[in-house]
Each structure stands twice: as C-alpha cells, then as structure tokens.
Design goal:
107 residues, alpha/beta, Hypothetical Protein Aq_1857, Chain: A, four-stranded mixed beta sheet, three-stranded mixed beta sheet
C-alpha cells in the first residue's frame, strides 16, 4: 500500500474541491511513456487522472471521504512508498519514493 502524507492530502483535497466536477475523483495510474526528446522509451510513468475509480483500486481517504484512488498496478509497483510534496524550480510537485529515502530521493 502507498502512504500519502497529510500535507499532500490537504493539497490534493484543495485542488479537487476547486477544480473537479461533482462526482469525479483523482486517480493514480501507470501509463506507458513513449519515446521523447528526453530519451525515455517504453518506460512506465505514474499519471494522475481525473476519472472514477476502477475495480481493484485502493481508496485514500481524507476527512472520511475518498480523496484519491490508486490503481492496483501503482499500488503493487510502489508498495510501501510515500507520496509527498517537493519544492521544485517550477513550484510544488508530488514525489514518490521509499519512506526512509527523504524527498531528494523520490521521483
């Protein structure tokens, strides 16, 4: 199972409340990244989508309500990892990685 920090939950909750249509949720899923200028080819990347839950998804709750759904594939691939916030030159971004690695080691 993936753990999401309380700070990351608060940000996701604020964004979801402000931007999502009623009845829609955020969902973490794996997608296959095709060749790009950066050289990635056939690499799986985590994406955050606006859609309803799928069978087998894990619900992450905040204040007793579903906040985010995590696909079975993401949950299995990143079991035990933490989703947190990270300050980047472009602003705040989500990162995921091992619990003891610290923010700098998360992607």
């Amino acid at each position: 199972m993936i753990t999401i920090t309380e700070e990351a939950k608060r940000i996701v909750h604020a964004v979801a409340r402000a931007a999502l249509p009623e009845g829609r949720n955020l969902r973490l899923n794996l997608r296959l990244e095709t060749a790009t200028a950066s050289g990635t080819d056939g690499e799986e990347q985590i994406s955050m989508l606006v859609e309803g839950p799928k069978e087998g998804d894990e619900a992450v709750e905040h204040e007793g309500e579903p906040l985010l759904y995590v696909s079975r594939r993401v949950s299995a691939a990143y079991d035990g990892c933490i989703v947190d916030l990270e300050l980047t030159p472009k602003g705040v971004a989500f990162s995921i990685g091992p619990p003891l690695a610290g923010g700098d080691a998360r992607s």
